[in-house]
Specification:
Helices cover 35% and strands 20% of the residues. The protein has three helices and two strands, in the order αββαα. It has a two-stranded antiparallel ribbon with strand order 1-2. Strand 1 and strand 2 form a beta hairpin. The two termini are 28 Å apart.
């Protein structure tokens, strides 16, 4: 899901495979060269596997709340 919310296309899926080629797991990976640091991926990641470098979850949620208030108030 976090892949779809990124407005910059910075979140990509990466397949982790065993030596025999079988899939172990698929993870979300942030392309730091494309990432603009908005925090949407970290805030919506259901497995909490994405952290925004330099920001705590609380700070990211506060930023999103503030932006939502601005959008509602116009």
């Amino acid at each position: 899901y976090c892949e779809r919310v990124c407005p910059f296309g910075a979140v990509e899926r990466e397949t982790i495979k065993a030596r025999d080629g079988s899939v172990i797991k698929i993870i979300a990976k942030v392309n730091e060269g494309v990432c603009q640091g908005c925090g949407l991926c970290a805030a919506t990641c259901r497995s909490n596997s994405i952290d925004l470098a330099g920001f705590t979850d609380t700070q990211v949620y506060a930023e999103i709340d503030a932006l939502a208030d601005v959008m509602v108030d116009g």
